[in-house]
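User: Predict the full complex structure for these chains.
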Amino acid sequence: MVGVNAGLVLDSWIDRMGAALIAPARAMAASDTPAGQGRSSSDVAILLLLAVLAVETRLVAISGWMLVDGDWGGAITVFLVDARQHLTMPILLLLGASVFLTIVAGRRRRVSDDFDLVSIALIPLVFVELLNSTVFLLGADIHTLAAYVGYAWALLLLGFAFLQTRKREYPRKEAEQK
Amino acid sequence: MSRVRISGIAFVLLLLGLLVLNGYGVVTNCSGLRPLHSGEAAPNFRSIKVTAAGRLGSIQQLDSTRGSVVVLDFWATWCGPCKSTMPVLEELAKRYGPRGLRILSVNTEGRGAAAKARRMIDRLAPSVELLMDTGEGSTLYNVSSIPHMLVIDREGKVHMVHRGLITVSGLRSDLIDAIEPLL
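Assistant: Here is the predicted structure of the two-chain assembly.
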């Protein structure tokens, strides 16, 4: 049977990443279905972990050497300090924007779904950061431009997230009262 | 294949490409990435002294500090955690300086940042010696997370390595524990 949400299904992680970049409205609509609940936030967690590994491969190797030398504490400290440098901003943005979206969604708010929508908005930011790191390795420095583009893109997707919340139905009790 | 899938694949290829580029650098210099340990000789490197006016001065060799206990601090002006460690360095310089401690604050931002680094040091830790890295120090010491600090004894052996910052109070007590027995 073909359901009403058949066109929205994004089964693979790769599809969901691609949709966040070029079809954010579709990615958010898919995330806002019962089948999509919780996927985006776990997708972003995986993406952030992979991004830290890709950007800081050298540091991961240093941590590895520390483990080989038996300095477990040092290895964990190096990795945590580095992860903190890369993850603090995305996590603060994720939490702050989720609270904001939940507030502006009004009676259509669904806290965990709002968090999922904001998670999708974060994907282009990570994409731009990866692009920036690659360009830097190849000898050019575009980090200021990348920061502007990344945050502007994320902000645009937060707009899409807000529009997605407007498409939700009111909770049943309120709908009946209306 | 849908456009969504193509862009998803492009995303993954970007991620893998970066991993391969960085991984190549790691594989070709794997043993060079092994961190220094207590008891190992601190590699000599050249850095540039910064004058009181914030201009580049003469070359400083780390080996010229032999005979003193040295705290070597790699840092940058944009690094918030580095700034928060400055008052600790100032305290240590005042407390242990008369007993033979030298604190070398090596800025890693390149020669153009000398004046900015001088202003920050003058404001937060005027008793420490400011140097600009030529790239040699940060490469030899595998500086990746800053602040990156080492305590080096009078014979030029490493006694403590601290990478990054978890808490300022933890760093302070680690530094004091490492410095006290060496003076």
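The helical segments of chain B are 3-28, 80-96, 114-124, 136-140, 168-179.
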